[in-house]
Amino acid sequence: MRSITKLSLVAVLALTGTALQAQTNNASITATANVQTPINVLGAQQLSFGNVFPGVNKTVVAMDLANAGRFDISGQASTPVTLSFTLPATLGSSGNTMPIVSYAAVHAQNSTQTGGIGFAPAAGASPSLNASGQLWVWIGAQVQPATNQAAGVYTGSIVMTVVY
Amino acid sequence: MKRTWWIVIGAMLLGVPLLAQGKPLTVTGIRGVTFGAVLPGVPRVVLRTDPANSGQFDLKGPKSNVLLSFVLPLTMTGPAGAQMRLIFGASDAGYSLTQAIGSQVGFDPKQPFTAVLPNNGRASVFVGATANPATNQRAGAYTATIILNVTVLP
Prior knowledge:
The structure holds 2 protein chains of 2 kinds.
Chain A: H1 2-16, E1 24-35, E2 40-45, E3 58-60, E4 69-74, E5 82-86, E6 90-93, E7 96-108, E8 117-119, E9 134-143, E10 159-163
Antiparallel strand pairs in A: 2-4, 3-9, 4-9, 5-10, 6-7, 7-8, 7-9
Chain B: H1 2-14, E1 26-31, E2 33-38, E3 44-46, E4 55-60, E5 64-71, E6 75-77, E7 83-87, E8 93-96, E9 105-107, E10 113-117, E11 122-127, E12 129-132, E13 140-152
Antiparallel strand pairs in B: 1-4, 3-12, 4-11, 5-10, 5-13, 6-7, 7-12, 8-9, 8-11
């Protein structure tokens, strides 16, 4: 009888000692990204009409390396970018204005415009940076001084925006 | 005496832990989330259905209900400790009973999710996300760790 009692006690202990353990496990993975070079834009050269005479229109073509406006772009090599422009309709001087019209532009992957591609800046363009991450953009236009255009230095701002 | 031994044997059999009756639970990280080339200022999205770039975990265990919960990073870390935001949307995780990326039930990885392990005890969890670089994000390699916790529910 005693042995049965002892064994029953053992059985009870064995039963109550059984634990329900919830299984938990975990694992990890890695997220990776390679951030490319940010875009840098430099207004490298002004669009210079020089001396302008009243009543005589003057044009600077985009292919004029000395007088056309120039932007120098740097960023991630061989990556497409989108160019857009804000173009003034007039140049101003002490409250006087002079129309500026007929904008034209060229983009090229070298500083000498070799193989350059012409485009209308008002429409923008989507060229690619070269293998060194560079691109050059030139811009020309025409000023139309009136016959009674007041003398003075006339200026305006051309803004180019570049995004990937 | 024989009746005594039967009592002992019976007690021992009844005392067998339940763990020995089911499969062990394993969770395996199969594939990371790959954003690849990311341009400053341009968010990069990886969908959970992207077979090459989405993250994947494989589950194996007993046929049962399971609770899935993620430990999600807020940012990725890059050169010189630079941080890039990492965003997980409300449908950026998916659970697949068939382990097929084309057959998932979407869920919010930011919330615990209850699922069922099927008869064969196998399932997969897929993960997508959005990398959100700043316009002046420092160039270089960025990484982050995503953890999936799985618990078999009683």
